[in-house]
Write a structure and sequence with these properties.
3 helices, about 180 residues, flat, Double Stranded RNA Binding Domain
């Protein structure tokens, strides 16, 4: 008895079905409003970021602005149309819960970032604003090294989220005129 379809015909049919399924999935994503992050349009042509060269957050902000916006980073605050001033960056850790013998079971990690964006002449584009993020971390004395790595990863995640929020807030500034 001969098979109804040859292997090349079956492969072609399988490929067509996969392409149709992928196209349908993309159509569903596009229909629900999903879109990949593209470049953000900041209302400033030049931006000075007031963070030291050794600041991890400052470096990340510079990298995101360079790679995802049309805004140019300048090193001289006087040459900038807008200045991002970092007012505070704090990492905190507090005990969230203890076990019956008094050992720590959970920590709460907090990341606070305060900033303002202004024109260098005292007029604010974004008035002083604080972004406060927190994460819970289970803890075990037996896994101290792993928990240290997890702590660093959670702080890095909060820092990434902070950078995204700062960029979204700068992109939401409606006009090129300070408030």
């Amino acid at each position: 008895m001969k098979p109804l379809l040859s292997s090349s015909s079956a492969n072609t049919r399988r490929r067509l079905l996969l392409q149709a399924a992928a196209s349908g999935g993309l159509a569903l994503l596009a229909g629900c409003g999903f879109a990949l992050r593209g470049t953000a349009d900041l209302p400033f042509s030049t931006l000075y970021i007031g963070a030291s060269d050794t600041s991890e957050l400052g470096a990340q902000l510079r990298r995101y602005v360079r790679n995802t916006t049309n805004t140019r980073i300048v090193e001289d605050p006087k040459a900038a149309q807008a200045q991002l001033q970092i007012l505070q960056e704090t990492r905190e850790r507090s005990i969230l819960s203890l076990d019956a013998s008094g050992r720590v079971r959970e920590f709460e990690l907090r990341y606070l970032f305060a900033f303002r964006v202004h024109d260098g002449k005292g007029q604010d584009y974004i008035p002083p604003t604080t972004i406060a993020l927190k994460r819970d971390l289970t803890f075990s004395d037996a896994n101290t090294l792993a928990k240290d790595s997890e702590t660093n990863l959670l702080y890095r995640d909060m820092q990434n989220e902070t950078v995204q929020q700062v960029l979204r807030r700068m992109a939401a500034v409606e006009s090129k005129q300070p408030s």
